[in-house]
Amino acid sequence: MRGEGKDWNRTTRGFSASAQDAASEEQKKSKEEKEKASEESEGGEEGPENSEEIAPDVNELQEQLEKQKVEVDDLRAKAKESDTRLLRVLADMENLRERTARQAENATKFGIQGFAKGIVGVIDTFERAVESVPTELMEEVESGTEEEKRLRQVLRSFHEGIKMTEKQLLQVLKENGVEQYDPTGEPFDPNLHQAMFELDDPNKEAGTVAMVTKKGYLLHERVMRPADVGVVKAKSE
Question: Is the model's pTM score more than 0.90?
Answer without folding.
Answer: no
